[in-house]
Amino acid sequence: MPRQEHIRNFSIIAHIDHGKSTLADRILEVTGLVSDREKRDQYLDRMELERERGITIKAQSVRIPYTAKDGRKYVLNLIDTPGHVDFNYEVSRSLAACEGALLVVDASQGVEAQTLANVYLALDHNLEVIPVLNKVDLPSADADRVKHEIEESIGLDCTDAVAVSAKTGLNVDKVLEAIVERLPAPEGNLNAPLKALIFDSWYDSYQGVVVLFRVVDGVLRKGDRIKLFATERTYEVIRLGVFSPEIVDMTELGAGEVGFLCANIKELGDAKVGDTITHVDRPAEVPVEGFKEVQPMVFCGLYPTDSADYEQLKYALEKLQLNDAAFSYEPETSQALGFGFRCGFLGLLHMEIIQERLEREFQVELIATAPSVIYKIDTVDGKSSDIDNPSKLPDPTKIASLYEPFVRMDIHVPNDYVGNVLKLCEEKRGIQKNMGYIAANRVVITYELPFAEIVFDFFDRLKSGTKGYASMDYEFIDYRQSALVKLDILINGDPVDALAVIVHRDKAYHYGRALALKLKRTIPRQMFEVAIQAAIGQKIIARESISALRKNVTAKCYGGDITRKRKLLEKQKEGKKRMKRMGNVELPQEAFLAALQVGDE
Amino acid sequence: MLLYIHVPFCRRKCRYCAFHSLEMGAASAVRDYVETLLRELALWGDRMGGVPVTSVFFGGGTPSLLPARTIGAILDRARKAFAVQPGAEISMEGNPESLTKPGELRTLLAAGVNRLSMGVQCLDDALLHTLGRPHRAREALDAFRAVRAAGFQNVGMDLIWGLPGQTLRQWTNQLKEVVRLRPDHLSCYGLTLEPGTPLEDDCAAERLSLPPERAQAAMFLDGAEFLESQGYIHYEISNFARMGFQCRHNLGYWEGEDYLGLGPSAASTIGGLRWSNPEDHAAWTRQVDEGRVGTEAERLTPQTRVLELIMLRLRTARGLRVKAYRELTGRDFLRDHKRLVHMLHREGLLRIRDGYLRLTRNGMLVSNSILERLFEDTEALMALPADTPPQAPPLAAGPQAPTGLDGASSPDRPSRDTAADDAAAPSPAVPSASPPSPASGHGHD
């Protein structure tokens, strides 16, 4: 039998909370790879943060030896995928490394938008998909309805769907049997020039960059001289192995196999997800299809609360980037916030994760400005440029045209909430593209939306408007010309760079008024009146004022009071360390997030 | 040096008061207190050896609860211990109801008390009740006349504005009534809700509510303007006096003079060292008996001294002398705080004249906000550690010690002669006799 016959490479596709990680854990247990309490729950989720959020951010693969019911021995490679739209590209690379996938759907919930998006992605890669209905032990489970839903919405035959409970372990053995019976073995020419797809990589302080790959053609051996297509750099493989789940060193891995290598690669950016590994001496002619450079989509300014922590923030960003090439940062200076960094992220979740890790793992207190997307501008002098910071937008007279990114978004929602979703999308300048039933009471709504509108308060509002029942997925489609303007916020006549936003002209007045009001409620009274103005260019479109503080005085200060009064003042002053001074006005951190909360009222 | 004597007894605790006092109880408690106080005076007299004292202040509590001859005895002992200067201001605080007996008043006068400060607080019986004061408005007016009749030439009244339920009109009318009596000095305190007091409880539970901020501000501004029109000089945030009747003792605090505080809970600052007596009578008595009072002191850091200079001087109408700041820091105040000073000036919160910065009335009203900014900026400028470890006994250092800065740690230390004419100026002759036993513990506070 050819050496690939006994290999099965698969991923698990599921919506958050539908039980992907639990099923993976059970598979490891049932195959005897990890004993019940040997490892913490959800073995595949490496980072504490991932566990807390219940999602997998970094993919990791596990090689699982499995003896089937008929006595034949197999090697199963479970290739984990991140479960969020921000990491869509990484998901697509992981799927490209598989021949099949388990589609896990919560039998008490049904198909969600994100599931659907990933299934389509899997089908695009010609993956064989096995439907798995999870949580069938729950009283609210309705396996028949959900099967019907899967058949209707995906067109996937559910006759042989496996009904399991990952929690109790029910029928997990049947899933394993289905994997070996129904998923195809990998194909690939062992004698062809080496071609291996990188589907994940991370930085390890001892090993340098660790690369996870799937061999498509050929054989990779320890000690081989390899070349990466995208960078054209060459390395020597100094370590080769698999995770099972602990490291097992190997001397060679052939077509169809999955493993890791270390090759003294110093920077994560040198081993990009999607890139192809080949031999220096006998290179493949073409790489594995589908490589692209991942670009940050969302940007925000990150500043240390206490300017003395700048170096610490810089250090933390350097460390984080070692392990996350998708995240970018560069120094910037804000009049209001001092020295900080403009950071780029794949999406909002990615941004939140990085911010949280900075505060949690590196103990840096941060002020984050409102997130922004990348705008493209053509200036009257015929040049084009990208704008990732609203305060950098040139004077309107210098702009010939302005473009903003659009996404296509699918929203799945019970029909009771369709009205709310439509209202939200219309308000967000969306263009309706499609709407239809996927099941008796579930609707899929497709919109094209400006990404900038999503970056603001879209998700929170979608959640509240649908009582949390909506799920969505989106992808970038293109840049479109828009009537956008920069809205400046002036405090006592001085523009505050960190508060500038780019908004659509039609919404600028409403937005400016709302933002000025929000700031009025956020900024504490000062020793003098504070004027807050929203302006487009020279034109003031909204004005609020914060009346002066009238009384803040210590009545008595005699011999016995002096120490106490002094300490009180010192304490007050400490409390203000988190404030940023703009001219003589003290702005609390919340002011810089006001732009995000305008829609709350 | 200023001498402060804390008399920790009250007939009963007022509902707004957070000062240390005990309800007047057994005569033996008072007797014990007086005996310990006399020993404390003697102790300091021995330690310091006849230091000149320019003012004595009996504060409390309610000093007027002590019999006049007891006050006399205390003053006699103070004169033995220190060189109480001829013409020294000798003040006593008192409540109206205990300042009515002509015989007692004459005894006080004969004992040397030459300034009385009456806790009138307000002339509205309902508000007095709210405050938990033990007297009525009528008694206050009677007491004032009795005090004058007994021959006191320098009589002040304490008043409180911003009381729950008080209106601007009530306050200004009351000031008119008060001024008709021609007191020599008026202290007008904005009500401060001290944590843990019954009045604070009432306000927190919304059983009572303070006047709106706007009204409170008007009480301060209109009140001050009215009093000045009546010949009272607004010489400190809460204090007004006819010409020549400013309280020299209190001015001493604001101008950075050394002060020795005796009695439970009393605070002292001498030669850059600060300490407080224990509040607890037994603990205080023990310290006095063992000769340990004042042996655990905090040495004020150069930074603390600067902050206090700013905080205290800006309370006064005269203001902060730029030169005093320079002498303490070696720096230029106007340059250090240029932006803030400019803004405060523009907003009419601060004036600069003849080398002094002073807060305007509007500035005084928000003085805490101004001080927070000045504290923040000053700390950044000095970039000095906030605290130094507690130091040895206050008076253990040589005779030069109280002068100027604790120079060793300050690069900006001024020369002695320039420091001499200012806040940190030497108190004439502080230590000379044998120092008390070395401190073992940590600084308090």
Strand order of the largest sheet of chain B: 9-10-8-7-6-5-4-1-11
| Strand portion of chain A | 25-35%
Largest sheet of chain A: 8 strands, antiparallel
Helix/sheet category of chain A: alpha+beta
Shape of chain B: globular
Question: Which protein chains make the most extensive interface, counting residues with beta carbons within 8 Å of the other chain's beta carbons?
Answer: A-B, 27 and 53 residues
Give the termini distance of chain B in whole angstroms: 22 Å
Percent of residues in helices of chain A: 25-40%
What is the average per-residue confidence, as pLDDT of chain B, rounded to a whole number? Answer: 86
Number of strands of chain A: 34
Give average pLDDT of chain A, whole number: 88
Helix content of chain B: 40-55%
End-to-end Cα distance of chain A, whole Å, is 68 Å
As a percent range, the share of strand residues of chain B is: 15-25%
Treating each run of at least 4 consecutive H or I residues as one helix, how many helices of chain B?
A: 17
Shape, per Cα inertia axes of chain A = globular
Topology:
The complex is a heterodimer of chains A (about 600) and B (about 450).
Chain A: E1 7-14, H1 20-30, H2 48-53, E2 61-67, E3 73-79, H3 88-96, E4 100-106, H4 113-124, E5 128-134, H5 143-154, E6 162-163, H6 172-182, E7 195-204, E8 208-217, E9 219-221, E10 225-228, E11 234-236, E12 239-243, E13 247-249, E14 252-254, E15 258-262, E16 276-279, E17 298-304, H7 310-322, E18 328-334, E19 338-345, H8 348-361, E20 366-368, E21 372-373, E22 375-379, E23 384-387, E24 399-414, H9 418-427, E25 431-439, E26 442-450, H10 451-455, H11 458-465, E27 471-481, E28 484-491, E29 494-495, E30 501-504, H12 505-522, E31 530-536, E32 539-546, H13 562-575, E33 580-582, E34 585-587, H14 589-597
Parallel strand pairs in A: 1-3, 1-4, 4-5, 5-6
Antiparallel strand pairs in A: 2-3, 7-8, 7-16, 8-15, 9-14, 10-11, 10-16, 12-13, 12-15, 17-19, 17-20, 17-21, 18-19, 22-23, 22-24, 24-26, 24-27, 25-26, 28-29, 28-30, 28-31, 31-32, 33-34
Helix pairs in contact in A: 12-14
Chain B: E1 2-7, E2 9-10, E3 22-23, H1 27-48, E4 52-60, H2 68-81, E5 83-94, H3 102-111, E6 115-121, H4 125-131, H5 137-150, E7 155-161, H6 168-180, E8 185-190, H7 198-204, H8 213-229, E9 233-236, E10 239-241, H9 248-254, E11 259-262, E12 267-270, E13 273-276, H10 281-289, E14 298-299, H11 302-313, E15 320-321, H12 322-329, H13 333-336, H14 338-346, E16 350-353, E17 356-359, H15 361-365, H16 367-382, H17 416-419
Parallel strand pairs in B: 1-4, 1-11, 2-3, 4-5, 5-6, 6-7, 7-8
Antiparallel strand pairs in B: 8-10, 9-10, 12-13, 13-14, 15-17, 16-17
Helix pairs in contact in B: 1-2, 1-10, 2-3, 3-5, 6-8, 11-12, 11-16
